[in-house]
Each structure stands twice: as C-alpha cells, then as structure tokens.
C-alpha cells in the first residue's frame, strides 16, 4: 500500500516563527502515553495553515510518522462543513481500508481508525476546526502518533484535556520587515520607517504582507513609502477586514487588484464568488469561458500579485480574507447576469464531468434518469485501463465542490442540473461510503426533481438514497424515503425499469427489516426487469433473491434460484457478481447438508473472485471452506483456508484481522 502524504506543501518562502518552531520541536519529542495533540490558533491570515504545513514537511523529512500523514479540512464550503463521519471514511480509505469492511457508524469508524493507528504512527492534520467534537474521533491510540489542529478559536476543552496550545500572533515590526525582505528583496532595507508603516498597515498578517511584497516585486520603481502612501489614501476599506480593531486590510488587497489587467481582475472577482474551497484549473477556465492556456497565464498573473494560492496538486484557492475582498469587488463591479452566467458555467462543467465519471465508475448498464445526450458528442476525460479509479479519485477530490455546485443549482432554480448532479454523485457515495453526504445530496436532488416535475428522478434518488439511511442505522428514515415516498411515485409512472429498481431497493431494505417479505419484492423487480429485457437487472436481482432465500433457510429454493442466476450473470458478464453468486450457492448447499457439493462451488468461487480481484467475497468463500474442513477434521485444508483469510483481512485493513491472526496461531499450535 502507498503511504498517504495528504497534507499539501507549505509556502515556498517561510521565515520567522523561530520560537514557535522551537516549541514544535519539543512537541514532537513529547511522550506521555497518549497521542500528542497540538492546537494552532490565531487570527485569520496570521499564517496557521502555512506554519502547520511547514511543520508537517519537517516531520516528513525526519521520517517521524512512517504511517504517513492525513489531511481533513473542515472549512465551510458554501456554508456547509464536512461531516465528521465522512471525514473519517476518507481517512480510513487513505489508510487502505476497503469499502466492504468500512463501518457505517461514526463510532465504528472512529474505533477502526484507533485500531489501525495503535501500532502505526500517523500524523493527522485537521484544519479550520470550530468544535472539539470534530477532533475527538480522530485521536489515535498511540503515543507515537500526533494530531495538529488549526482553529481561529482556542478550543479550550481540548487544552484542558491535555492538548498543547500553539497560539500564533501577528508578526511584530522586526519579523514583518524580515518577511518583506525575504519576499521583496533587499531593497526594502533602505526604507526602514516605510517598511514599519507597511507592516502596520498589514496588521502583521502574512497574508497581507505577501500581497504588498508581490506588488513591490512587480514594480521595481515603486518605493516602499509610495506603496504605503497608496494604501493609506485608499478609502475602499471594508468593515469586514478588521483585525482586533487594527488597520483595515482591504486597501492592501485593493492596491494589488488595481494593478491587474481586465481579464485577470475578472478571474479574481469570479473566484471570490465560486462555492468550494478551491478549484481545478479546468474549472477556472470553464467559469471564465476562456481557453486553458489563456487562464493559465491569468493564474500566473494572480500568483505574481500574491492574491492566489496554487497548491502542490495545482488546485487554485484564495485565502479566506482575500476571497471576501474578491467577492465584495465582484458584487460592486459586475452585474448580476455576469455572476449568474459564471455559476451556470461552473455547474454545467462539473455536471458533465461528473456524468462521465459516473459512467466510468459504474458502467453504462446502470439504470439512470439522467438523459444520455448530456455526454453525447463529448469526449470522456476518463479513459483507458485506469478509467474507473481515475473517475472515482476525481469525484473524491471534487466532492465538496460538487455538492456545493448542486446547492447553487437548486438555489438558482436550475433543478434539472441539481438532481442530475445528485444522481452522478451516487457513484462516489456508494463506492467510498460517504453516507452523510449521500443523504444530503439525495434529499436536495429529490426536492429539485420534484420542482422540475421529474417524478422518476425523485423516486430514483429517494429509493437509492434509502441505502445510506439504512447503513446509518436510520431504518425509520429509510422506510420513509423508500416505502412512503419513492414507491408510490414509481408505481404511478410508466417507467417499468424504474419500478424494477425501486422494488429491488425494497427487497434490500426488507432483507434488514422484514426478511420474510424480501422475496416478494425481489420477484416483483425480476418480473419488471424481464418485461424490459433488462438482462443486467434480472441477473443481479435473481442473485439477491437467492441470497435472501438462503438466509431464510429455504435451501432448495435458494439453490434453484442461484443456479438460474449464474448463466444470467455470466451473460452480462460480471465476474465479481459471478463469484458472489457461487459463494451464495455454496452456502445454500452447505446449509442443506451437502458439504461436498458446497466445497466444489466455494472452490470455483475462489478461482473466479481471484480473477475479478474481489478479495472480500473471496474471504467469505475461504471461511466457508474452513467450516467444512473443520467439520471433517481436515487440518491441512483448514489451515490453508484460514491463512488466506488472514492475508486478505490484513490487506483489507479489516477489524477482523487481529482475531483471525490469533485464531491461526492457535490453529497451528493445536
């Protein structure tokens, strides 16, 4: 497994903060029996993120955390913050946990993270935390691990529980002058009084000093005194830019903005309006409606002006204070139609790319309400042998922006785009198990589908979203979304495939809530899919029906159903589902008291699942073979099956790995 190094790199130039780095040296060395927790607090713009990221770079260089570093940004996106549960899912996935063994509950995910980090030193960086409750579930179970938190508040409860306070103050005159010299060159040393005034005007905040330094670099003939005077005489300061009653900072940013050409200024303003913490360059090009090359040049201009941050992965962002300045200027400068057009281009760009990602991740045979012409006559950005992984990684990287774009679409009344984004996003949610986001997106999308008059899309989103509610343990809400809302809508519509998909979801919910009623729902779904010649739907639901019959102890009927499912699945074809079907068939035969027949099916399942790469269900086959071997007293076969189970569960980072390892040790001794 690749060791995760998720924390972005810090700024290219970083000076000062010597006492703070000395404190961090002691922090890294500290051992008190529990994971170290540091809370870096201070004003917006004081440099918390840059400081913490530089600390992470130093820790990487020293090899302090062989388990890697994980990054969670709780900063609000379009007014919403990332849920703790989904953030835990992201961390677990980065540590190699397979979705099949990923717990659904927040408590289960927190426990699994603690288990994984008990002997694997990791560093977790949690940015823009507002509440100690966001931190507690991430605390590792090892004194070799550490958590670094950034927050505008001091998070006193964490400090009281033993966290190390790391307050960052604005730079004083000497330190601010030092930073200016490093960024703008030695010429500033010739004007010490003007430099001191410039530092004061910037309130000692590095975010502002970076901007004025960029202005001095861009204008070699501009004296520090002249720049300080320009800022002092600027009367466009905004009340939002006040730091503890000190000088307003808007004039600092305005001075840099005034030097931009028209296109760069427009991009700056539009970036201030976009939802999301950052954007990819192709998204910026789509929003500005310019070529990628043209926007790359404008990005360089904004970077040179000190107004734009370019992350180590190439994504573009504005510091929160700069972003507020850009958004304010956009509202002052541009007519509402310009804002609306930019948002429309953003939504359409992300929607089309998300639709392609959905197709690459889950295949074209999946039932969808989104019209096919959305992607027709366009080239997919996700191609080749790695298309599925690349598509899911893109959805994951953009997940906050995609959900924010969906909210923008709903707020603007673009309801078709809103529900289509929701449908595309399910490809990510069902695969990476972001259950909370799934419920939010599905509800928003279903409401938009209703507003758009698309009853089929509403039924689809509510029925499929019921899986997230069920996995979260909210069976009452799953019942409401599926049985009370989605099913009556679907039953009134002529879309037979939709009705089949909804009845399939009813069967899957009934497997949990009323197992005796699941078969009837599955049989309805099969009949509906059959009438539409939906071979994929018939094949998969027949498998689900056979599994339900097997769990209810109806061995003979389960065998009959599963044997009927096998050729249907092979005709699709789907190797993974074929392997699952063979496992279910083996379990049915074993339950019926036919171990030899069961062994044959399990052995075949192992071969098929090894070809498909689905190790979770392969482990189930080996577990069944182990049970047969133990019943027959075949110690060699049992040891082989258990050894493979251990190997798989360790690779999947399963909570069962430790238990199975101990069992194998006892088995070998016995």
TrEMBL record:
Top-level taxonomic group: Bacteria
One MF term in the entry's GO annotations: ADP binding
Source organism phylogeny: Bacteria, Bacillati, Actinomycetota, Actinomycetes, Pseudonocardiales
Matching Pfam families: TPR_12
Identification of the protein by name: NB-ARC domain-containing protein
SUPFAM superfamilies: P-loop containing nucleoside triphosphate hydrolases, TPR-like
